[in-house]
Each structure stands twice: as structure tokens, then as C-alpha cells.
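Data deposition worksheet. Section B asks for the primary sequence of the deposited chain exactly as it was used as input, without tags or linkers unless they were present during the calculation. Section C holds the resulting structure in C-alpha cell form. Section D is free text for depositor observations; keep each observation to a single sentence. Incomplete worksheets are returned to the depositor.
Section A, Depositor: J.P.
Section B:
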Amino acid sequence: MGDEQVPPDLITFNAAIGACAKGGEWERAMSLLTEAMPAEGIAPDSVSYNAAITAHANAQPARPDGALSLLRAMEGEGGAPPDNFSYNGVISAFGRAGRWEEAVALLRQLAAGEVAHGGEALSPDLVSYTAAISACAEAGRAAEAAALLEELRSSGLPLSILPFSKAIAAAAKAGEWRVACATLRQVSSLQLRHNALTTNLVLRACDAAGEPAAGLSALLPLLRESAAAGVASPADEETLELVPHLLLRAAEAAEVAEAVEGAEGAGVWSAEDAAQLRRALGRVEAQTAAAAARRAAKIKRDAEDELALAKLEREQTAAA
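Section C:
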């Protein structure tokens, strides 16, 4: 009785395809979907197809055509009905392959109500917009990313920091530092939670554009706001490395502005501004030091647990 094997069922296959999806193992996922499941007389459902689509999206490189073929199979006669997860997976696959126009086109198909699930038209969700904005970011299409972000804001959907981060990444890649700073201000106006990744994207964009004062001016209010709210600062070790460099460049720009009457271009960052920023960074330094200490403590605990487990295994082996 103990040697009898339980035949795989739909849940088992979906779990296996899902595991393939995480690693981008599209060939194994497709083998399970198109060969193993039919051999067992099991019809794939939406979860099966969605996991296979994700496997194509996570492949290195991404395989958007394979993902799209699966989506079209779901839309066909007798196919498992596609849902938002299906479309979002294909949008992500197009984005990761640098095919932003096709990613946006699929988003438009959803927005036009051309897709139905269970008799009701599907519509884009937050993930749909984020994936399309990310696709634009990968291609450095700042204007398109900004337009999609504005469309998302007008949609009434719940917002998160992620689509804003993607739009800032698009602006940074395109050298649009003003757009990056303006998008960062939108995050504050909407009272979304800033993060270090977004902060650093703006700092790097301003640095690359030769506008260090703009980057520093964007950073200082964020540090003040987080301190006043008693929450973690949206800054990390990279921020601490970027700021001294930007301060030096801003000081050099100030000297030029003083020497050249009516100088335009780089903004002037005053000594008082710099002093305020350095004081605010003291909290960031303490925050990053505490985070480093926690990571070190966890590594130590994990090592101690492994040693204890190895000792227990040796004792059990000796006792046997």
C-alpha cells in the first residue's frame, strides 16, 4: 500500500507549472501543459495557462510570442477563459523583450472592453498599467510612460509607488530629469510611500543631466517628511554615496554662478541647504547601520541553526 503512487491531478500539475514559471523554465512548463496533462486526461484551466505565460515572461530572454500564443489559445473555442492575470503576463513579456508598442496595444485592448471573462468585459487593473509603464521604461519612452501614468491616476484604480517608480525610471533613461522630479512630487502629493529605489533614480537622473541642485532639492523634503512622520527615510547606502558627489557638483555650480553674472542652467545649492541635508542624512546613516546590524544578526542566527542541525544529525547517526 505504501508504494502505491497517487496519479497527478490538476492541482499537482498547476503547482509544477507554477514552479517552472518562477524560474522561467518555459520548455518544461510547455511540456507539462501540452504533453503530460493531455496524457493524463486532464484539461488545463486558466491557472495552468497563466503559469505557462509567466514562464515565457520570466524566460531569459523573455518569449512574448510564446506568451501571446498561449493567450490566443485561451481566447479560442473551448479554451480556458483568460483573465487579467493572463493579459498582464503577456504585457510583461512584451515589456521585458523591449517591445513596448505591443505591450501598450494589449493594454488598449483591455481598456476598450474587447476582452470578456465569464460573460463580463475585462478592464485594466493596477498591474496592467504598471506592466505597460514598465515596458515603456525599458525602452526609455518617457512621454508614453508619463501618459499612461496620468491615465492610471484618472482611472480611479488604487495606486501604489510601483508605477511611479517605473515612470521615473523611464524619465531617467530618457534624460528627462524635470519629468523625474515632477513625478517624485506627485508621489508626495498623493501621500504614497516613497522608497529608496525611486529616490536614487531621481538623484542619478539629475546627476547625469548636470543638475545636482535639482536632485538635492528633491531629496531634502523627503527626508524632512519621513522624519516628521516617524517613518523610515526613503534612502539607503546608495543615497549616502550619491549625496556627497552631488553636493560637490552643486558647490562647483554655485562658484560658477557667482563668477558669471546671469548664469543659467545648474541651480545653486546654498551652504545652509547643504548643512540641513547633512543633518537629515544623520538619520539615514543610523537607519542603514541598524539595517546592516539586523542582516548580520540574521546571518549569524542562520549559521548557528545550521551548525546545531548538523550536530543533531551527527548525534542521531552515532546513536543509530
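Section D:
Residues 262-267 have pLDDT under 50 and may be disordered.
The first helix runs from residue 10 to 22.
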